[in-house]
Amino acid sequence: MKNITEFILLGLTQNPELQKLLFPVVLITYLMTLAGNLLISVTIFISPALGSPMYFFLSCLSIIDGFYSSSIAPKMIFDLISEKNTISFNGCMTQLFAEHFFAAAEIILLTAMAYDRYVAICKPLHYKSIMSRLLCGLLVGMAGLLGFIHGGIQLLFIVQLPFCGPNVIDHFMCDLIPLLELACTDTHTLGPLIAANSGSLCLLTFSMLVASYVIILHSLRSYSSEGRRKALSTCASHVTVVILFFVPCSFLYLRPMTSFLADKAVTVFCTLVTPTLNPLIYTLRNAEMKNVMKKLWGQIMKTSDK
């Protein structure tokens, strides 16, 4: 049984007129994603005022968001204006690994950020000693390592399957469910294992996040109303990002391994819209971040005037 050497991606739509309309929208959204996340990363990197662990994690999240979106968006944009939307077998496997690597790393990093907020609110006197540079570095390294392991497991599941044809993927990217449907073998046993790998990661980490915020809310009862307001404001952005990421993630992977009509729309939201919204959410709701950006912009303008 001979494996095929390339796949044909049907993309977001096969309507030429709609493709022309979607091209500038997707391109602008992707460029906004890169610009917004790059701005946050650079601002945190060069600003001593943003040297706390919370901002260190935020800069790492922005970098991951940029890479996560870049593992999918460029190919999707190119296919909107290309007549032949093909991807090699190796390219498909690379994209599959990259998307799951960065997605899993982001999930673990969001958990680390929740732990940071838990320590800051529930153990404020020990915050600096607990959230040391070493621990922060270890948490980010763990996010990368676990993301690599998760992506590697998904790749090993798929790469061993025989693909003898057809080779048409009704999607704009290579993902688990469309590839399972093309495999020339019975995947009724393998499907649940693949679903468990992604689904359990989503469910376990989301449960940990919910538990951490239940503990945080419980501890806030002893705070003054002003203290509660400040503590909740620091958590609101993180909770919003968690919801935006985990709701589509749960829809895509906490279910039987079969395609749904809404898969493309949910995947676009998860891989393109959410990474674009993350910089806006953290910037607009964070007065300290906005003040630093204003000062930085003022310095840039003064320099350009000279």
Report what the structure shows:
With 306 residues, the protein is mainly alpha-helical. It is 75% helix and 3% strand. It has helices at 16-46, 53-70, 73-81, 89-122, 127-130, 133-159, 176-182, 190-219, 225-253, 263-284, 287-305, and strands at 6-9, 86-88, 168-169. It has a three-stranded mixed sheet with strand order 2-1-3. α6 (133-159) packs antiparallel against α8. The model has no long low-confidence stretch (mean pLDDT 86).
Put the structure in a nutshell.
The chain has 306 residues and is mainly α. Helices cover 75% and strands 3% of the residues.
Helices and strands in order, then pairings?
Blueprint: E1 6-9, H1 16-46, H2 53-70, H3 73-81, E2 86-88, H4 89-122, H5 127-130, H6 133-159, E3 168-169, H7 176-182, H8 190-219, H9 225-253, H10 263-284, H11 287-305
Parallel strand pairs: 1-3
Antiparallel strand pairs: 1-2
Helix content percent band: over 70%
Number of helices: 11
Radius of gyration: 21 Å
Major sheet details:
3 strands, mixed
Q: How would you state the average pLDDT, rounded?
A: 86
Care to count the β-strands? 3
Shape: globular
Poorly predicted runs are none
